[in-house]
Amino acid sequence: MDYYRGDFLTSKKVLICSALGISGVALIYLHNNRIFSKMPRTKQELQVQVPNIELSGKKLRLAAWLNSGIFGRIVRPIARRTYNVSALLDKVIDDIPSFFPIEPFIGNIANVDNEPTANDISRVVDCLDKPRDLGFPLTTIQDYSNAYQTGKYTPLQIANLVLDYLYNDSLSNEPVNPLSQYNKIYILEQAKESTLRFQYGRPLSVFDGIPVAVKEEFEVMGYLHRQGTSFLGGSTVCEQDNLVVGRLRKAGAIILGTSCMHELGIGTSGCNPKQLARNPYRSGTGSRHYTGGSSSGSAAAVAWGLCPVAVGSDGGGSIRIPASMCGVVGLKPSFGRVSLGPRNLAFTVGSAGFLAATVRDAALSFWLCAGPDPAYHPGRVQPAVTPSLQVISVPNHLENFTIAIDKQYITRGVDPEITKAILDVAKYLEVNFKAKIVEITIPDLEESRIAQIFCIGCEMASSFSTFSSRQVRLLNPETQMSISFVDGTSTQEYMQACRQRTLTMGWLRRLFKEDGVHCILMPGTACTATAIQRRHSTCGFSSRHSQPNNEVRLFSQSNWLSRNNRACSLWGGIWSTHSRTADGTLVGGE
């Protein structure tokens, strides 16, 4: 017995030593490949330099393995140092922590009795000027509604056209593939019912017959709730809709199915080998690019012309980034305004929102879907929504409108062509619309970025705490690395992040209420869309250039906007607008 026990212990020591040896070799390999040595070390370096270091294939799998289990205790501190977390943790903040970006407001409280109905929204749209003939097919909600009312098209014809698009796309070598799940029978049934309502002159609303795609993060009746994975949802389809989907369906919208997304919503590139949506736009070389994420399929569906509006969600740029990269409008409403449901992944920063062909369509969708949800605690008390023709009409001037811009903020770590576009937009609004442009300095950029990573990372990781080890292994390596980054986060670190949230909310409150600023103009993304590479097809990729370290830096402030910012409460305080001018020039900003 003694001999057996000693032999066992010796074997155990050999295994441990072997594992540590492998870990050491792996670290040396990564170091020799300059994975760690190229990382910026100081706050100043992080603000000026965001090196484009890409991991894919075997390197990515190795990095994910090193971040897990016992080796993670060695690797994670190194990774945290490269993310400069000490900038936040070493800061002295006297404010109390804020766990939700919610503050009291003065005004009418929204409830079931005063929520706008689909008919209220339709009456506003009826007062709009008829859309100009721009020489291209139906693109906006108003285009579809007018075509149905005049008999030019029927919802059934549009549904068959959508299905033809999807079928022909599936035959392509590089399909756009915006939808992860759709059912031809379900789509045609909804279209037939809508067509009959128009034939009898009883459409439900301006949304009747409008095709809408829904991010797979939301429950959609008749479809699996997989959230971008290969195993969630099993084989059981949802028996009811999420509240937002239900309101759209009740208004007559044709729910096309679920759209592709970055796995579990953890990532901003849109690269998910399990369900990959491609950017409809091609570069001059004809190569395909990623859409941005995590609402990748929703952005692709709108940009491709499949539908004028799609549902997405956003906790750290997941609507705004793909909207920017696909050239559509992205709206993340103020926190709590549009319900994500009780089982959302990032419960203090996440928000349901919309990707749309125009700002007007985003506003119409917001009006329909905003309002209290008994099952969603953060949104139970909120201002009443009042559809207004003035809000969605194009202004002749912006003389009393103050736009703030931080010129240093939009140049550090931002691609030059994006910086130039933002400065051109500011000049255009100042010269042609008489807007007042003021320069500001946004404080605590680095601290806010780190606090955002802690908050959203811990919340999403807690949502996955029930995953078995087998399920974790089924996740993409990039997803595993993102989850493991916040493993071991202490209470002190999370509380410090929430104290930084209090500071940021206070600064935004003063900026919008006391300083008279109506809007902050900033990039919708820090970098242009990444080209799709064959080496990404097996397990995806992780890149500092297109990952949250760079991109979330632009959104950490706006992610904590509370809904009492009256000047911009409808748009969430800071909004992304991406549309084409009369000459076809793509402009955008946030």
DSSP, total strands: 13
Strand content: 5-15%
What is the average per-residue confidence, as pLDDT, rounded to a whole number? 81
How much is the radius of gyration in Å?
Answer: 24 Å
As laid out across the biggest beta sheet, the strand order is: 2-4-3-5-7-6
Distance between the ends: 71 Å
- The helix fraction, in percent, is 25-40%
Shape: globular
Structural class of the secondary elements? alpha/beta
Poorly predicted regions: 1-10, 12-17, 25-50, 132-136, 563-590
| Total DSSP helices | 20
Largest sheet: 6 strands, mixed
Q: What this model shows, in words?
A:
With 590 residues, the chain is of the alpha/beta class. The chain is built from 20 helices and 13 strands. The chain has helices at residues 2-32, 43-48, 57-66, 69-82, 86-89, 118-126, 141-150, 155-170, 184-199, 243-250, 296-304, 320-326, 359-369, 389-392, 416-433, 445-463, 469-474, 477-485, 491-514, 548-551, and strands spanning 54-56, 179-181, 211-215, 254-259, 309-314, 329-331, 351-356, 402-405, 436-439, 519-520, 541-543, 577-580, 586-589. The strands form four sheets. A six-stranded mixed sheet has the order 2-4-3-5-7-6, with helices on both faces. It has a three-stranded parallel sheet with strand order 9-8-10, covered by helices on one side. Strands 1-11 form a two-stranded antiparallel ribbon. Strand 8 (402-405), helix 15 and strand 9 (436-439) form a beta-alpha-beta unit. The radius of gyration is 24 Å and the shape is globular. The model is unreliable at 1-10, 12-17, 25-50, 132-136 and 563-590 (pLDDT under 50).
